[in-house]
Amino acid sequence: MSESQVSARRLLALAVPALGVLAAEPLYVLVDTAVVGHLGAVPLAGLALGGTLFTLVSSQLTFLSYGTTARTARLHGAGRRADAVAEGVQATWLAVGVGVLLLLLAQLLAVPVAEALAGPGPIADAAATWLRIALIGAPMVLVTMAGNGWMRGVQDTVRPLRYVLAGNGVSAVLCPVLVYPVGWGLEGSAIANLVGQSIAAALFIRALVVERVPLKPHFGTMRAQLVMGRDLVLRTLAFQVCFLSATSVAARTGAEAAAAHQVVWQLWSFLALVLDSLAIAAQSLVGEALGAGSQRRAKDIAKKVTWYSLGFGVLLGVAFAALARLLPAVFTSDAAVLAEVPHAWWFFVAMQPVAGVVFALDGVFLGAGDAAYLRTATMLSAAIGYLPLIWVSLAMGWGLAGIWTGLSLFMVLRLVTLLLRARSGRWAVTGAAPVGATAA
Length: 440
Fold this sequence. Notes:
By secondary structure, the protein is mainly α. It folds into two domains: 215 residues, no CATH class; 199 residues, no CATH class. 83% of the residues lie in helices and 0% in strands. Helix 3 runs antiparallel to helix 4 and helix 14 runs parallel beside helix 16. The longest helix is centred in the first third of the chain and has 38 residues.
């Protein structure tokens, strides 16, 4: 790999299309929400609950993309493209198997789960109906994750963007047609979602077929993928427990605090997508370097990506500090909510440079396949920092300042653990198999 391949231009060539893929689903959800919102409060509440459950389930399975990228990138770096694509084949089989299981569970559990969260009634009924249809698409959603994973590993982030935009574009056009003129209401929204997911999945499957690699399932490879998947699922679970706790505490603090938290949290989540696109580029580049047998190159990429991401985080922090008086008013005109926003806003601003480094190193270690360390570091940071402070802030009445102090401590602890790992160099293990993974 030449110097130019780890330049900002090379990084952005991978990161920008990856950002498009990451942003496509949230943007589609906005379209879906706008369409269903005109049906009334109950369908919109049903969509909100069903969509939250769908996202909760699918986000637990992101190892199908991140884990696959780590394994594929190493093989690609070792000059074994056919084997790299074969990892994508096995990840796709795994996606189909897990997706079918989710589909069946949804038919059995959608009603009791929705009623447990919303109580028996029309909202739970609407959510369960939407969820049962939407989760028919679970295999397709997971196939798309696996497809993103192997294509990122071979440093092709443009085709996944095209595939995802094709699927979401059809959904966005079909959704209002099925909801209103056809008259299917909320069910029409779920069916439009299903059609789009099927189109994207079909394109990813076609991409595998044209590679002319064996398409038979290989259970040894799938088992090795699940080893890494286990660690990534636990890591994701730690994130979700923290973020759900923060939302719960904000809601218990008061309506104004909950609304202000939602405004700042959505901005945080959006910027996390932006920074995560750089992390995805780091995964691909670091995995390739280690697969090619070059620790020095992998460490050089890690250092440069971290500096780039830190600089980007500083710029974001400065930009949102300048927008502190203007931007919140775009989201709400409620004076009481706007008065609460600054209690979270300045934590949000101050954490952008920290987030830049944390997300970059996340990408580096995911690319190296160092999932076990990431799992442990995330869970410890949550248990020691975030969760205790979140719930103490409720007991002590610290409000949003307490909640966002907890988030900041969580990020700082993650920063420390990741910097220690980076300094140790123990993550930079060369070869075609990631750290701690079982080679198939």
